[in-house]
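#struct-help
A.M.: can someone run this one for me? Single chain, 498 residues.
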Amino acid sequence: MSELKKSIASSWYDAYNPLLEGIPVFKEIEDIMDAIAFDPLKGMNIEHLSFVDRIALLTGEKTPLEPTMQSARTAMVWYGMLTSGLRARNPTLATNKKYYYEILKCAQGGEKPPAAAPTSGMSINVVKGPTGTGKSVTQQRFCACLPQVIDHGKVDAAGWISMRQLVYLNVQVSHDGSRGGFLLGILHEMDKALGTHYSISLPKQYKTVEKLAVATIGRLIAHFTGILFVDEAQLRNLVESGQAELMQMFLLLLMNSGIPLVLSGNERAFDWVTYSQDKSRLALTPQSIFYPIGATNEENAEVEWAAVAAGVMAYYVLKGPIREREICIKILWACSGGIARIALILWCNAQIEALYRNEESIGPSDIQLAYASPTFNDMRPLADGFHYKKSELLALYRDVDADFYARFWRPLQGDFNQTSMQTNEPLEAMVHAKTSQKKPLSGPEKLKLEQTRQRNKNDKRGLMMQSMSAEDIRQQGLAKYNLTNLTELKAQIEKDPA
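D.P.: on it. Structure tokens below:
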């Protein structure tokens, strides 16, 4: 930035800030959506793939993402946390310089900092939702938009000769049930990103966990860490080892560091947080909750599912075209319960079986076969629980808040029992029904739709998605595979809660 531009900044927000150099600029919602969208097969010559290549692609790791409004909103929250946090810690401002060097001095001696950071407690986001609803892939795609490390040369205004800026950090910790293991996990991830040796040198220098904790946070601050992602599941072992109170104290220290913090977990996450001050801090920004599409009867569920299905169905490696695409979208929604990962599993399994049958395309019946397969037994109650709004099926999974859904769905159960279980149109009629070819919505249109939904959600209840008939394999699956075995499954879980 030129010296003229540096001198005419009208506020702290516009002031010259070397920490923002190299951070991508997003102006509109579609900028975010385009940035996090990901098609793993883009540019690949599908026609020339071998049989083994196709199987490998279908069975290997895959993270396609066609952004929904939920994933876009969450990414925008994180982007705001990142950029606002870097602006608040602008190293060219005198007050920030003073605080920065005070923190480093305290960290060097393993002492707690003298005062809270300028952004203390203001950039914390809790992300919750059932497994497979898009939390992790949204985080992966958001991080992929950013450089993880930015190398700065000499910056006189900041007092730097050189600086390695850590833009983001995904914390992967050990599961030994100790704070020390958690801290080593942070340091190990920093070493991988920065090429440092903190995970070796700091534990030798700081013999107590308390001093190592302060030193670790000091290193995060020293590298102007932009945003820190922590999986709550990785913390739970520490809590269950009897260190819940100590863990909460450490999180409080981390929250006060000024580093934006994202805590991600399932629907029952953070039930171990009991201190009121910690609970209030976790609520400082609206939680980002990823529900299965349609689970809360949202008015824009059809549009959201169209986005999920577009990303899932783009992962297609067969030579022939998809048969009856619009019906596949509906059946994927029904058979997956609106859970993106389950839809991807069914979609890929259907293709695998088609390849082994020497078929070159798939359609609705192939998805149904994948749903009925014994390989889907463990996931079927979860999918059916959300599709049929049966909380007793969700109770089979410890990480799903079945009680919440039971309360939420209870007013609808009478209507549900009459409509979805008895009087649905036959599958054949649905398959051959005319379907409208809807033009995909632009980013602003999706935002407008979301705004309308927010205004109307207290006055209207979204229509429940049409279910299939009693003769449909979904209905047979619910009766055959779930309800008749419910008592046995519950007994098994109670016997072996792990």
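A.M.: thanks! The radius of gyration is 25 Å.
D.P.: also worth noting: Residues 1-5, 415-438, 457-481 have pLDDT under 50 and may be disordered.
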